[in-house]
Structures are given as C-alpha cells and as structure tokens.
Amino acid sequence: MVQLEPGDLYKYTPALVPAIIAIIVFTILTVLHTYRIIKAKLLFCLPFIFGGLLETIGYVGRAIGHDNPVSLPAYILQSIFVLVAPALFAASIYMTLGRVIRATRAESLSPVRVNWLTKLFVLGDVITFFIQGGGGGLMASSDQNRFKTGQYTILGGLFLQILIFSLFIVVSIIFHKKLRKQLTRHLVAEDLKWQKMMVVLYVVSALILVRNIFRVVEYIGGRDGPLLRVEWPIYVFDALLMAATMVIWGVWYPNLVRPKGDQIIDAEEGVPLPDMDEVPRGYHTGAVAGAYSK
Questions:
Q1: Is the whole model's pTM more than 0.85, yes or no?
Q2: Which among 23, 47, 176, 265 could bridge 91 via Cys, Cβ 3.0 to 4.6 Å?
C-alpha cells in the first residue's frame, strides 16, 4: 500500500474553523428542512434533507483533514459528498416546476409534456449524480492516471448538469411568460403564489449554476491549478452558495402550490382553494394579475 505524504491529497492544510462553521450551518439547515417536510408533508423535497446530510458529512471530512491531511477516507468523504450534494437539491427543484404547472392547471402552456418534464430532468440529474460520484472516487487517489480519469469524469458530469439546468431554466421561462399572458381561471385564488415560486426556482437554479461553473473551472485547472491549491474558493463558491440555496428553499417553501386530484389544495390549511365560479362577479384578468404582482 502506498504511504501517503502531506501534500499528496491536499495542497494545503484544511482549516478547522471554516469546516466547523459549515458543519453547524448545514446541520441547522438540514434540521430546518426536516421540520418543513414533516409539517407540509411534501416528500418530493426529501432530496434537500439528503443533500444537507451529504454537505454536513463532507465538511466533517474536511475537519478531520485538518489534523490528519493524509487520511484517505476523510478526503474521499469531503471530495465526493460536497461534490454531489447539489445534484440532490436539483432533483427537488425539477419536481417543483411540474407541481407549479399542475397546480395552475396550465399543462398546455408547458413546452414539454408535464408527464415527461419531471422524469427527464430528474433522470438526467440522477445520471450526473453517479457520474460525479464515480469521478470523485477516482480522484481520491495519489495515482496521477486515476486522478486524471476522475477529473475528466467529473468535468463530464458537471458539463451535463450545467446543460440540464440551462434547459430547465429555458423551459421555466417559456412556461412563465406564456402563463402571465394567459392567466387561467384558477389563478384567481390569491393564496396560490405561483409567481413567487417561479422566482425562487430561478434564484436557486442560478446559485447552483454558478457553483457548477466554479467547479468546472476548478477541475479544468487540475491538481496544480490555482483553485485546488487554496481553500477559500470552496467555501465562497460552494459552501456559501449551497447554504444560501437551502435557506431560500427553506424560507420560501413550495407548499403554496400543491395540486391534489382535480382540486388545488392550500397546503397550510388542507382545504380546496376557491374555483372561478365561486368568485364574485367583477373579477377579470387584470384583477388577477394585480393580485399576483403583490
């Protein structure tokens, strides 16, 4: 067995304080998301819990690396878990768009059939998850050839994830624009804050996209590249952005747009939202639009 030396895995000594802060932050956020899921009963948001757990465990690995920078298991933990966690966040984001489309009864306005939309994006997300995970395992080696193979594998997974996310944003924008022009009769229910949810989707998607672009630049530079030789970028362009993603998703939770059968259900009260026939005469699309601009 090859004896690892300081510098074989990290090009620096991992700092302890930032790692501990990251562990605390992601633990708190994971608990928050657990509470939100239990209260709202939105099981499609479970990936946020698993993603938060991976982030937490990954930074535990970095904390271990402070005192033992040649610990291969700790290096593998931080290398793989922090790398793939955002793919889990993405899964919930993809599924939320499908729920917004169904809740607004605007399936005909989606550029992709709703039955296929979630399946295609989540399938692509699962593929990128395993590609990046496999590449991270290969990179957790002092062998230069295996490291290179892992590096190219991760880059392939990241490029694919960026492509999928970009397509997702395009689909979301097309649907959003069409729906604003053709407000359906169900959108009169002011509690169905679909536009706010769309903004949340855009923001968290942008955060993950920026993080993935950073990771691409990082891995293109290689083991001796500028971003892998210092530690601060992983906290600024990865940990901070992913913590922000969890905060935003936890505060503006997708529980205001949840379809159930043929009715739209208020997720907080568990009762049907009013249909257009129950709304007093005098409402029109301008009034509806005004309600959603609040």
A1: no
A2: 47
